[in-house]
Amino acid sequence: MKKYKHLIRTIILAVLVAIVFRAYFFASYIVDGESMEPTLYDGNLLMVNKVLYDWTDVHRHDIIVFHYNEEDDYVKRVIGLPGDHVAVKNDTLYINGAPVEEKYLDELRPDDGRVFTGDFTLEGVTGNSEVPEGQLFVMGDNRRDSLDSRSFGFIDIQSIVGKVEVRYWPMSQLGMTFR
After folding, report:
1. Where do transmembrane segments lie in this chain (predicted)?
2. 138/150 Cα distance (integer angstroms)
3. How many domains in the chain?
4. CATH number (domain holding residue 98)
5. Does residue 149 carry a catalytic annotation?
6. pLDDT tens digit string along 23-43?
7. Cα 47 → chain centroid
8. Is residue 10 part of a domain?
9. Could you say which of 2, 50, 76, 172 is catalytic?
10. Under DSSP, is residue 176 helix (H, G, I), strand (E, B) or coil?
């Protein structure tokens, strides 16, 4: 009986630690839609680090989950940080006038002669010439089929739920690196 008491205490402690860990440090999300393909696919299950940005800044190219509104959370890639000037010309992303390589798009770019990311300037899509303080400019990787900052404008840094750290379902697509 003494042996079972120790086992039961250990199991209860493990469950409590897992609940606290899940509630305060990580969240699980399901990708809904095709806007992040080929990096993330519809139905992928993600583990999102909810506390990382309490200790570090958001970085360009991070994949984040954020509250779009009271009901919906979106997953997108950070493109523009506060103070950045963002533009796309001839299918090339420019940040502060310098071209930025986006290798994560190579797999998706079709060789169909059409532009993958249409030309735009930040001012043309948001009315601002630079990303305001406390805001981010985000885009989906599937540039032809993504509802992102080109449509809804900047997102507030405070709306970030966390950084996507792990894709754990389906197991055949298990991944921890999304660059």
Report:
1. 7-31
2. 8
3. 1
4. 2.10.109.10
5. no
6. 567 788 889 999 998 888 899
7. 11
8. no
9. 76
10. coil
